[in-house]
């Protein structure tokens, strides 16, 4: 599953790490490893302002009101939920890029689709860039305010430590988890009652998300635990979500600083650390189940005929294997949140060639069927976020993130958006 990188305050995205993604795919082959990335990279904000706590009124966004669902002709009409045997999800969401974007359009499209949540990835290194306590909340204030005014809920995924917190690392997590705890306390205090959930890091089983250092399940647990403490100190009511792992197989090429650990095996390592300390580190477990070119209902190992399948991480039902690990380790009472999932259509980046098998009609059908599947078979999954809403307005057609978008570059619905808007959602919030 391809994933996203990079938003600077200037509104641009960067492909600073796209070469490494492509190289890694070439090294391991399409049947042994895939990727899912969060928003990362981008240039550092040049100006820093230390702002007193309390959310100011936004400077540039006009008031947001609910809008009628747009009338859009779709090339696909997925079968509607009949309701029988389907359990309502608590939260339907989109991951969006909202920094320096038309936030009114983003929230209006979310409302028109009948979704109640938005996810924004936050780079810690952009928000506290120069020194500890030197916060720059300007763009995030505007994002939170726009989402709040629309009556929507928001999940913030927090990643990438600033240089001053890296220790002996050059990139990725902090050298001292206590600095992450302090930041999560600061952000959750500032947005207490306004931000409803925080995802504690992103895809720590992939070396590029762990500073190109050696992947460390124990270090990840300690980081999540620190972040969880920080959030609960700042806003006890906010939900903490364990940082979702990339759907991946195993690879280890130390001389090239390339490493990934199978996400199920890594989750087993997470629970094995210090006799299950991870059980204290999050309220819900996050997951990024990939579908690639496989329908959500396909059994793991079944074939669609493209060659982009075989490993279990290429199937949406990978979430079942994560659940089994949770239950085996005494966490069966915890919820799961799908914090990213989606399907690419034809992709200009050859590393994401699985998308060539997916028509726009396939993308629309797969997304709807995925929601129906988890409503029918997975009551422990309470929230699910489509990746992505609006990235086609931010990146070019040559970018691997582009064809995952459900809105076009002009902000108009693709068939997937229309299908999601028309999909029955039960009593979702």
Layout of strands and helices, then pairs:
Blueprint: H1 18-28, E1 91-95, H2 103-112, E2 117-123, H3 124-127, H4 138-149, E3 153-159, H5 177-190, E4 197-200, H6 217-234, E5 239-242, E6 251-253, E7 258-260, H7 263-272, E8 284-287, H8 318-328, E9 335-341, H9 360-377, E10 381-387, H10 415-422
Parallel strand pairs: 1-2, 1-10, 2-3, 3-4, 4-5, 5-8, 8-9, 9-10
Antiparallel strand pairs: 6-7
Label this structure with key terms:
429 residues; alpha/beta; TIM Barrel; eight-stranded parallel barrel; two-stranded antiparallel sheet; 10 helices; globular; disordered N terminus
Question: Quick recap of the structure?
Answer:
By secondary structure, the protein is of the alpha/beta class.
CATH architectural group: Alpha-Beta Barrel
**Order of SSEs, N→C?**
HEHEHHEHEHEEEHEHEHEH
Gross morphology: globular
Our count of helices gives 10
Please compute the radius of gyration using only Cα atoms. Answer: 20 Å
- As laid out across the biggest beta sheet, the strand order is 1-2-3-4-5-8-9-10
* CATH classification class: Alpha Beta
| Overall strand count | 10
CATH superfamily: Glycosidases
Oligomer: single chain
Which range does the strand content fall in? 5-15%
Query: The CATH topology, please?
Result: TIM Barrel
What are the low-pLDDT stretches, counting only 5+ consecutive residues below 50?
1-83
Overall number of structural domains: 1
Mean pLDDT: 83
Percent helix, as a range, is 25-40%
Largest sheet: 8 strands, parallel, barrel
Describe this entry's structure for a reader.
This protein is an alpha/beta fold. It has one domain: Glycosidases (TIM Barrel, Alpha-Beta Barrel). The protein is 27% helix and 12% strand. It is built from ten helices and ten strands. An eight-stranded parallel β-barrel has the order 1-2-3-4-5-8-9-10, surrounded by four helices. Strands 6-7 form a two-stranded antiparallel ribbon. It is globular and about 50 Å long. The chain starts with 17 loop residues before the first helix and ends in a 7-residue tail after the last helix. The N terminus is likely disordered.
